[in-house]
Amino acid sequence: MPEKKYAVVVTEPVAAQPVAAAQHGEAAFFDVDNTLMRGASLFHVARKMHQRGAFTIPQALGIAWKQFMFVVRGEKMDDVHAVRDTALGLAAGFTVEDIEVLGEEVYDEMIESRIWPGAKALAEQHLRVGRRVWLVTATPIEVATVISTRLGLTGALGTVGEILDGSYTGRLVGEILHGPAKAVAVQAMAKAEGLDLARCWAYSDSRNDIPLLSMVGHPVAINPDSGLRRHARDNNWPVYDFRAGRRAATLGLKAATVGGAIYGLWRGFSRFRGPTV
Asked: What's this model's pTM, rounded to 2 decimal places?
């Protein structure tokens, strides 16, 4: 069986300098989508690629609908794999430099304003007391690295796209870093970095990350989906919900018609089409 590969990128923390000695053996691991930020980061990558003419309006609407359902109901493996396959196909032919620039633009224009202040504060508190803070996400490593660097975190583990002659091929190296794969990657990191997982923290919104949350001594549910909320309650895990007006928004979304939702998604994408010639 081929070895599973994930990218690990280390950055220099700058946003929250430690005020205490380094806590050797301790670290905190944060999921990204719906945990550190509102919505799915891949959706915003797709929006930026749409601006550059990488795909058609019908394809854009399909991706937008998956983002809508992601926000409403949380992660579903079929949706995650569908978005992954779409994104990989769209990235084929892009150069490494293209994707690096795109990642910076996506963060500045679309992700920064969607970072949950509460989740950011938790990460910064870990840094202040001397713990390393890692992102662990299915998000492409290029985007995860930008988020980690901009927030001054220690580094990121993310999904790796294959590169040949300086361009992306549209295939993965290893597999998507999602669900149980996150636990495998963190276990390997703990061994390499000398971490005691019983003294580590993990944060996620999704039931799919229960394997990761269960392997650390301090699991925390953030903006949890219904499955994770039940599991957290049954296991007495802390739960933080940073979604202002969550109940009102949920009721409103459930009341919306499918046609109205599609129209709203169309309008959202249309804002980024730019002037027609």
From this structure: 0.74
